[in-house]
Amino acid sequence: MTRVVKDVSGSNLMAAGLTTGGIILFKQGYKITWPDDRRKITPEVSYPYDRQAVAISNSSAPVAQLAISDGEEKLLIAAGIDNQLVMDVIYKEEDFLTESVTIEQQSVTLPAISSLSVGGDLQIRQLLIDPEQTWLYVLSGSNQLTVINISNIDRPYIHESLNLTAQGVDVTELTFLLGGVSLLVGDSEGNITQWFMVRDDAGSLSLKNIRSFSLGSDPVDKIVPEHRRKGFLAADVTGQVGLFYTTANRSLLVEPMAAGRIDQMAIAPRGNYLRLFSYCRLLIS
């Protein structure tokens, strides 16, 4: 297993990339039962697209980067394999009488990104697909983002390419804010910026830096969006954690919470608890 990602639309669908080039699609869930009138919660894993690995673009090389987006009619899978960008679409059709689902998998011909090749100058570092299945974001090199329009899956095209940070400053973290409309970008100087698609006077869309936050001067290591609000948590490599609220452009809290790098970080759905895991220790705030 080389990579595990989740669908940002909130469907609980996850994907695991394999060294063989295959991808396993699964869902995590929690079954609630009441034995002896006591609530029992049992974690479970299901396989909505069969338990067998899905081969993407007939590749057998390890999956280095991965992104998925699950919609009502189709599932999109994008991957970076041998520094090549590939994508498959799985169309879904449900029989209204039997409720059985028929799927059909097809390869998508993506536009070539000139700087990406086997042994090329830039390496694919991360992939993201928005919940509306309109944009595929490809992060490569230290700070280059290529935005591909996939609204027409038969004719995707490169919408724009841009640098997310100044020269000499690396992108260290990239994720969606709640809803998948805007991007949060963490960098090597402790800053987090929020980016939106904005229309200019001519009606053309382009990705713009709307607001920024400061966690400190050390590289941002993790960004975790809240589940129900437009806030997010961020941690740097020294264990400093910040709580930020984007709509009000406010920094609510910036404090050291660990003696070093935080391995895992999660926030409760209600936003009332923070769980950190650092150096094999569990910290709860």
Word description of this protein:
The protein has 285 residues and is mostly beta strands. It contains no helices and 24 strands. Strands 1, 2, 3, 4 and 5 form a 5-stranded antiparallel beta sheet that branches. The chain has a 4-stranded antiparallel beta sheet with strand order 6-7-8-9, with no helix packed on it. Strand 3 (22-33) and strand 4 (40-46) form a beta hairpin. The two termini are 32 Å apart.
Mean pLDDT comes to 89
Helix content: under 10%
* Estimated structural class: mainly beta
DSSP, total strands: 24
Distance between the termini: 32 Å
Largest sheet: 5 strands, antiparallel
Shape: globular
Ranges where pLDDT stays below 50 over 5 or more residues in a row are none
Rounded to the nearest angstrom, the radius of gyration is 20 Å
What is the beta-strand fraction?
over 45%
Q: Can you count the helices?
A: 0
Q: SSE string, helix = H, strand = E? A: EEEEEEEEEEEEEEEEEEEEEEEE
Q: Can you tag this structure with a few keywords?
A:
five-stranded antiparallel sheet, mainly beta, 285 residues, 24 strands
List the helices and strands and how they pair.
Elements: E1 3-6, E2 13-17, E3 22-33, E4 40-46, E5 54-55, E6 63-70, E7 74-81, E8 84-94, E9 101-108, E10 124-129, E11 135-140, E12 144-149, E13 157-163, E14 171-176, E15 183-187, E16 191-199, E17 205-214, E18 220-225, E19 231-236, E20 240-245, E21 250-256, E22 264-267, E23 274-278, E24 281-284
Antiparallel strand pairs: 1-2, 2-3, 3-4, 3-5, 6-7, 7-8, 8-9, 10-11, 11-12, 12-13, 14-15, 15-16, 16-17, 18-19, 19-20, 20-21, 22-23, 23-24
